[in-house]
Design brief:
The structure is a homodimer of 139-residue chains. With 139 residues, chain A is of the alpha+beta class. Chain A has helices at 4-13, 20-31, 38-49, 54-66, 133-138; strands at residues 71-73, 81-83, 89-94, 100-105, 113-114, 120-131. Chain A starts with a helix and ends with a helix.
Amino acid sequence: MIARSELKRELINAGIRPSVQRLAIYEYVKSHHTHPTADVVYDALRDELGSLSLTTVYNTLKLFVDAGLVQLLTIDDTFRCFDGDTSCHAHFRCDSCGKIVDLKIKSDFLSMVSGLEGFEIKEAQLYLKGICPICKRKN
Amino acid sequence: MIARSELKRELINAGIRPSVQRLAIYEYVKSHHTHPTADVVYDALRDELGSLSLTTVYNTLKLFVDAGLVQLLTIDDTFRCFDGDTSCHAHFRCDSCGKIVDLKIKSDFLSMVSGLEGFEIKEAQLYLKGICPICKRKN
DNA sequence: TTCATTTCTGAAACCATTGCAAATATAAAA
DNA sequence: TTTTATATTTGCAATGGTTTCAGAAATGAA
């Protein structure tokens, strides 16, 4: 759990004015590592904030992604979800239960890719899909 | 270029009846390595086939993906595109020109991921984004 | 041929996401 | 403090790629 004052500072450092809504949304994605969709964040915060618009959630998360504070995941092709953890890691999506899990990955994994000369890499996403251990045991 | 008869056999082996439309769509994605969207395939084949529905293209591509004959790429979160090459390779998307490029990758790159015990991996996608050599030279 | 099954089609529905313009809040200036 | 300008939020409507639907056509089996 990160202190609100620290989160506030991060937003300001990124040039983002820390409004009540923005700070609440930022705190949510930084403290919940559940890869929520915009809709999940909206449902979780609308009571706490009294009033909140789904549009604001979409706009704010996009703002965070553009600023590099949050990752956008497109591992599921039917919706977008967000990850407050911007460190280097892979994602696994279970075909059975839909859960998205973080996986550790060696920081130099790009050495496995050849033909990158002349390319400027800004972002790398490794998506794995299959059956998670829990669902596998059930079958 | 693969012979039609060979493509036909592949469809039958996968349990898919090779209708005129399916064979044409399959031939297109197997011979064009341009990562087309359903719409691009539709535009390319509607003249050749006389009549063709966009719905048929969507249904057919989904059928191929489910059968493992074609890959679905979600590297661009605003649309889906397809890749007839199902061998192990990575994809790069240029932020500037939008082009999607194939990149070679070592077949054992999953060894870079830890904590996979108990997981059954059915699919792996490595997406890289940034600026391609051509766009970089222009700036 | 006849019947059952599969496939194809266009139109309509779906739904996550975005655009818009008004309302509100915040900061700066007077 | 009050005024003014700017930034942010809001609700609703619209967008657009994708999926669904029911009927029509084609295919295969008997």
